[in-house]
Amino acid sequence: MNIFFQQLVNGLTIGGIYALIALGYTMVYGVMKLINFAHGDLVALAAYIGLTIFMKVGTSSSGLSILLIVLIGTIMVIVFAGMMLEMIAYRPLRNANAPRLSAVVSALGASMVFENGMMLLWGPNLKIFPSNILPSTSWSIGSVIVSSAQLFIIVSSFVFMLLLHLFINKTKLGTAIRAAAIDQEAAQLMGINVNRVIVTIFVLGSGLAAIGGIFVGIYYREVYFNMGWLYGLNAFVAAIVGGIGNIPGAMLGGILLGVFNAFIAGYVSSSWSEAFTFILLIGILIFRPTGILGERVAEKV
Q: Residue 64 pLDDT more than 80?
């Protein structure tokens, strides 16, 4: 039972990261019907940018002030990168009414550009994220140990997910996003600027990817140029499990996948966690092809 609760804490931590990254996939797919394969590379880029910012300011600030500077600086850079990605890789194809396969190839090409760019800038070797961004405090609840990093990631992930949910469902721009997700032509006839909506979802998705990348660095501390493929793939699986295009589904899928992986690592072997991830995906697609929550039109984005 002690292993169960410890792995549950670990799973919620990982699941929170997956959910934040999966939201970027599901928002872009909901509106554009496009899988942004470069999204995972924005997560890796965020980890590198966060590491670089910390190395510049880490000696002059302390505690949460460092983390705040790192988060804000990283979000700004990654949001800009996401906007450039949409403008250069996707918008010309969208305006030319190119086949959907062209956008997929463009997404894969953008992913390769990001990966090779990171390798050239920071090198192919592993980088170690600093351990003193957060206090090394931990709390024991019985035999279950919760570190300050885990607590911060779990709480922050749920806060950001709640804020996104409120934004999508309670604001005028969020209503425009939901309308564009249902029918872009009808949304345009109602006076909605679809291009503005698409830029908004890239801004939101890139911002969440930036936060996810920082959380990956804080929790795992290992940063390498092609790690975006791994975290992007897991987040993509999470989005499918929950229901691709469904924001609550991406949140649920990320949490469930993180907990599932943690239990496989705790009770079977960590080396088998990726294999069981795809076994889970196959099972979901067989018995629930549209994901756990499905692609409910009124809620998908």
A: no
